[in-house]
């Protein structure tokens, strides 16, 4: 068995320095959120006397926006997976004409600028009455999540041995039963990967949220921070506290699903 070369102290040091540089903005954001109210510029390197008043202000002013972002992100995950799973299964396991053209069309949708889609949706939403609604935002964010989920799920479903599916068909299972009882349990890593990235797309969306909302009734936290920044420039601790709170769900999901995420991304490459 070929031994992997040992990592030298130089490469380890370089890795630590690069990691520190990448994480420094996150550290400074947390540090500034624990400072007293006022400008964050003279803040020290460490919060010697942590002040959690910024978090209290952020929760009071942005708590509803955080809930809105969570509802929209979870709804987008549910809708995207509901549409992507059967589509990916059909493209991966069924002999359909035009599969290559469909896949090419899915890839092309990823190159369309978001502002073009947002402007088109604004006109359609005006006629359909979907502006300033949870359903409208969920549908808009799903336009990004569905194509990505189809590509990830199809790559994994193609790697499932055909003998497993044939055995289920011989036992009398129909296509829907095979999908539900065989393919989906085996595709758990890919489902988690697709769902996680769809959540991150929707959670961090700013363009659709800003374009498709004209009131404060449905305002995700990204738009809340944008408008909060201009109105509270003298309360940087509250602004930074809002940013920290907005980062926690995404960071927690990434940490919890990192094992499934790595497996889901590389699974289709081994076929």
From TrEMBL:
Tell me the Pfam families matching this sequence.
BPD_transp_1 (PF00528)
- Report the coiled-coil segments: none
Q: Quick one: where is this thing mainly located?
A: membrane
Which topology term describes how it sits in the membrane? Multi-pass membrane protein
Q: Where in the cell is it found?
A: Cell membrane
GO biological process terms on file: transmembrane transport
- Transmembrane intervals: 66-89, 101-122, 134-157, 178-203, 236-257
Q: Which CDD domains match?
A: TM_PBP2 (cd06261)
Please list the residue ranges annotated as the ABC transmembrane type-1 domain: 66-257
Family stated for the protein in its record: Belongs to the binding-protein-dependent transport system permease family.
Q: What is this protein called?
A: ABC transporter permease
């Amino acid at each position: 068995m070929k031994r992997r070369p040992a990592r030298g102290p130089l490469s380890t040091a370089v890795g630590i320095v690069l990691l520190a540089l990448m994480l420094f903005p996150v550290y400074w954001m947390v540090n500034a959120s624990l400072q007293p109210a006022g400008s964050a510029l003279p803040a020290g390197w460490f919060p010697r006397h942590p002040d959690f008043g910024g978090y209290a202000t952020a929760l009071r002013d942005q708590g509803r926006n955080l809930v809105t972002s969570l509802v929209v992100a979870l709804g987008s995950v549910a809708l995207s997976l509901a549409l992507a799973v059967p589509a990916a299964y059909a493209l991966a396991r069924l002999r359909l004409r035009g599969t290559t053209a469909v896949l090419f069309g899915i890839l092309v949708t990823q190159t369309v600028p978001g502002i073009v889609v947002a402007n088109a949706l604004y006109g359609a939403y005006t006629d359909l009455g979907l502006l300033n609604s949870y359903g409208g935002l969920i549908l808009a964010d799903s336009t990004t999540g569905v194509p990505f989920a189809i590509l990830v799920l199809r790559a994994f479903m193609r790697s499932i041995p055909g003998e497993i599916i044939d055995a289920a068909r011989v036992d009398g299972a129909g296509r829907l039963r095979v999908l539900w009882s065989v393919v989906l349990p085996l595709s758990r890593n890919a489902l988690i990967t697709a769902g996680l990235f769809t959540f991150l797309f929707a959670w961090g969306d700013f363009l659709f949220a800003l374009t498709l909302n004209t009131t404060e009734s449905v305002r995700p936290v990204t738009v809340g921070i944008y408008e909060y920044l201009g109105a509270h420039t003298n309360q940087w601790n509250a602004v930074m506290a809002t940013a920290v709170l907005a980062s926690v769900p995404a960071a927690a999901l990434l940490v919890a699903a990192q094992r499934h995420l790595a497996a889901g991304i590389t699974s289709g490459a081994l076929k």
